[in-house]
Design goal:
The protein contains eleven helices and ten strands. By secondary structure, it is of the alpha/beta class. It has two domains: 132 residues, ATPase, nucleotide binding domain (Nucleotidyltransferase, domain 5, 2-Layer Sandwich), CATH 3.30.420; 177 residues, 2-Layer Sandwich (Nucleotidyltransferase, domain 5). The longest helix is centred in the last third of the chain and has 29 residues. It is globular. The model has no long low-confidence stretch (mean pLDDT 96). It binds 5'-O-[(R)-(carboxyoxy)(hydroxy)phosphoryl]adenosine and zinc ion. 5'-O-[(R)-(carboxyoxy)(hydroxy)phosphoryl]adenosine binds next to helix 5 and helix 6.
């Protein structure tokens, strides 16, 4: 009798075309990611139409490679999972159409996955005994959200960004500093040579008990610091020394991380959390991982963080989360739609 569950996961919510086959939620049989970074680099951000076109070109070969590399025969794929929200609609729809087509052709169920929840699943893939209650922080290019987590299928949103996401702020500040896209890795690299205390950038905490985030004020503070309030000094950035740029990058990074850690601690205290979960592209940042780990250790909690290779968008997190929906019989039908926003 066949007991293993093999799930094909497809991810096209932003600028990665990705597919993976995962067995029983944690055994990664294949993981194929085609990044569009080179296509969007000169624009300093993701251009939806370019992303959509690139997904259309790549989706078939990427899915085929994922199946081939997994060594699993198509008939032994038990379900096709796809991120259908949130993200760029024109990008999501490419993965969704491919997933529906495959599910129909293979005669297998379709599973709808919330991309943000999947980012959190990456932090729990190998975890057997999740100590509850847990609070979860997802930090990506499009979202900065805090959840209370009962289990991976039961997440309650506690707060989210009211303007820019943390990753978006990294990308925009990198663009102000003429650093390459995506901004997160280049700010992190540049910040290594800088002093995080050189500039006291604002830490926006909003109302006293608020678990929401705001990063647009910080981004504007960096802009004014570089260009002046009248915006007449932007050319100054090109004349700044490497040390000056590194100090700005390090001070900005410290401000973002300070807010993320403080808000996560507030949520963890409020809900008596024993565990803190961290996922999303910005979770690849070493300083964020270290500072959250320090906070968790100081306060007697365990931090579970996604391995760096699964922080940014990938198909593994989609297929892994889908396993739990598969076991719970939570299937979607062919009317499934792509949604730019998120249900929760
Ligand atoms: O999760 P992700 O791949 O895509 C979205 O769902 O948005 O996250 C991408 C974001 C980008 O904004 C990128 O700059 C940021 O994650 N990022 C980082 C690092 N690596 C990627 N931010 C800070 N430090 C990093 N090392
Ligand atoms: Zn993502």
């Amino acid at each position: 009798m066949k007991t293993d569950v093999n799930i094909l996961g497809i991810e096209t919510s932003c600028d990665e075309t990705a597919a993976a086959v995962v067995r029983n939620g944690s055994q990664v049989l294949s993981n194929v990611v085609s990044s569009q970074i080179a296509l969007h680099q000169k624009y300093g951000g993701v251009v939806p139409e370019i992303a959509s076109r690139a997904h259309i070109e790549k989706i078939y070969p990427i899915v085929q490679q994922a199946i081939e590399q997994s060594g699993v025969d198509k008939k032994d794929i038990d379900a096709v999972a796809v991120a259908n929200q949130p993200g760029l609609t024109v990008a999501l729809i490419v993965g969704l159409t491919a997933a529906k087509t495959l599910a129909l052709a293979l005669g297998k169920p379709l599973i709808a996955i919330n991309h943000i929840h999947a980012h959190l699943q990456s932090s729990m893939m190998d975890v057997q005994d999740l100590k509850l209650p847990a609070v979860a922080l997802v930090v990506s290019g499009g979202h900065t959200s805090l959840y209370e987590c009962e289990n991976i299928l039961d997440l309650h949103l506690l707060g989210s960004t009211i303007d820019d996401a943390a990753g978006e702020a990294f990308d925009k500040v990198a663009s102000i500093l003429n650093l390459s896209y995506p901004g997160g890795p280049s700010i992190e690299k540049t910040a290594k040579d800088g002093n995080p205390k050189a500039i006291n950038f604002p830490r926006t905490m909003l109302a006293k008990d608020s678990l929401d985030f705001s990063f647009s004020g910080l981004k504007t503070a960096v802009l004014y610091h570089c260009c002046g309030q009248d915006m007449k000094g932007c050319s100054r950035v090109t004349q700044m020394s490497q040390k000056e740029i590194a100090d700005i990058a390090a001070s900005f990074q410290a401000a973002v991380i300070d807010v993320l850690v403080r808000k996560t601690k507030m949520a963890a205290d409020k809900f008596g959390a024993k565990t803190i979960l961290l996922g999303g592209g910005v979770a690849a940042n070493t300083m964020l991982r270290t500072e959250l780990e320090n906070m968790a250790n100081r306060t007697g909690r365990k931090l579970l963080v996604a391995p760096k290779k699964y922080c940014t968008d990938n198909g593994v997190m989609i297929a892994s989360l889908a396993y739990y929906k598969f076991k719970a019989g939570m299937f979607a039908d062919m009317s499934l739609e792509a949604k730019a926003g998120v249900d929760d």
